[in-house]
């Protein structure tokens, strides 16, 4: 029912098992068929994905995560008194719930930041930053 979920289950099982033996491929295929059928009631609809922008977004986010890991490591291993944690309200430019959820997820997976909540009525995301020296965002 959900080919992308099947593909991700199949790929995840292969990566977790660390093997491409025939028995592992068989079990991965079996799981890729069974699990999407079990979660079918929880996935109301599968959104249409524009693959080129999605792939570009993946690489931008991946690069930001790599760079942020080094910056956060340097901040955490350095003097703690230099950290300036701060809460920000980031305005949303869309009312599309899936897009806002994806943005919150990207913020949370980037080291040094955590999205604490999405306020659809107010139109913003509450974000905690580990350290900020940007006075413009006050």
Principal-axes geometry comes out as: extended
- What spatial order of strands do you see in the largest sheet? 1-3-2
Q: What is the count of DSSP helices, taking H or I runs of 4+ residues?
A: 4
Spell out the helices and strands N to C.
Answer: HHHEHEE
* Overall radius of gyration: 20 Å
Percent range for β-strand residues: 5-15%
N→C terminal distance: 47 Å
**In total, how many beta strands?**
3
Could you give a short account of the major beta sheet?
A: 3 strands, antiparallel
- Could you estimate the helical fraction of the residues in percent? 40-55%
Structure description:
By secondary structure, the protein is of the alpha+beta class. The chain has four helices and three strands. Strands 1-3-2 form a three-stranded antiparallel sheet, covered by helices on one side. Strand 2 and strand 3 form a beta hairpin. Helix 1 packs across helix 2. The model has no long low-confidence stretch (mean pLDDT 87).
How is this fold's topology laid out?
Blueprint: H1 3-17, H2 22-39, H3 51-77, E1 86-91, H4 97-109, E2 113-119, E3 124-129
Helix pairs in contact: 1-2
Offer a quick outline of the entry.
With 138 residues, the chain is of the alpha+beta class.
Which keywords apply here?
138 residues; alpha+beta; 3-stranded antiparallel β-sheet; 4 helices; 53% helix; 14% strand; extended
């Amino acid at each position: 029912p959900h080919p992308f979920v099947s593909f991700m289950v199949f790929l995840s099982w292969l990566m977790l098992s660390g093997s491409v033996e025939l028995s592992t491929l068989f079990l991965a295929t079996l799981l890729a068929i069974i699990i999407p059928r079990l979660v079918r009631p929880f996935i109301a609809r599968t959104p249409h994905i524009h693959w080129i922008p999605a792939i570009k977004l993946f690489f931008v986010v991946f690069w930001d995560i790599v760079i942020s890991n080094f910056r956060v490591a340097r901040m955490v291993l350095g003097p703690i008194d230099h950290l300036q944690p701060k809460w920000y309200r980031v305005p949303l430019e869309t009312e599309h719930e899936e897009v806002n959820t994806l943005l919150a997820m990207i913020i949370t997976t980037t080291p040094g930041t955590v999205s604490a909540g999405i306020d659809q009525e107010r139109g913003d995301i509450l974000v905690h930053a580990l350290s900020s020296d940007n006075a413009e965002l006050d």
